[in-house]
Amino acid sequence: MPSSLSLKNRLIIFFLMLLSTLLVGSLGYVVIKIYVEHESTSITNALFFSVATISTLGHYPKGIELTSNVGKWFTIFYLIFGMGTIFGGIQALVTPWIEMRIRNAIKERGVPIPRDAHVIICGWNDIAKLVEEQLKMMEIPYVIISTSPPEGVPAIEGEASEVSSLKKANVDRATALIALLDDRSNVVTILTARKLNENLRIIALAREESIKDLLIQSGADVVISKEKLLGSILEQWVKGDQKYLLSGEMFENLKIKERIVDKNLQGKTLRDLKFREREGTAIGIYRSGNLLLNPSPDELLERGDVIIFMESEENADFGLQ
Fold first, then answer.
1. What is the pLDDT of residue 200?
2. CA–CA gap between residue 97 and residue 93 (Å, rounded)
3. What are φ and ψ of residue 74, in 5° steps?
């Protein structure tokens, strides 16, 4: 019986299998009684034989049992077949319920949620992973609220904007909340969290510059734009820490890469090279120890410059010669 079926469908299938088994046993009993043992019988006797056999009752009233060799062999095979139907059906019905109880018990015994002085991370994406990494390094307790949270860490499965999820995260005793969802969800989450804890320090990530004021008005103490966050990551990049390869929902499958400008490219601009079309979006140029963020398409390139850009999957096969 497929494990994906609902309990209702399982019950229906089990009932049909049981009914079919009883019909086969009753029909076989009648045929053998009449045509092999040459005795008259009734539907009641046939049904009693079927139920007594598959239930392993082990006792038949006088005149109901099959006494011929054919009848005895039929009884043996029908007993095996009937027991398989009964016990197999019961197992198929009970096993999913037992598995669910076990999963819930394991989930309930998972990593405990911090009770106070902790940080709540709303959303689970590449940025959240970086935040979690820093909190671990600083040994700051935290909990993650997400519809698809990671395993093995303090986490709550649910919408961060819902009161129930925030209460499970002990928002009333938390120190800070970091909203890393989409702009709309961040606004709702901030409004809800602020009502539950007026003293909560709230930090939000804005995907669009136009939403920053709205996030502040909603109750965020600090709003970090995606550009500012990229700048911080790029500083680590140029210092040699190249572990921050971002991909996924937050940056739409984009990865940070670099291209060194040689003598053949010096004096040209990003526009001349059609850099965006062929490589990706240039977000910085590292030149003589300085980092120029968001360079203009008309910026003249110098030999030795390092162009830092975000490469999308659709441009991954192109390259500058």
1. 93
2. 7
3. -65, -40
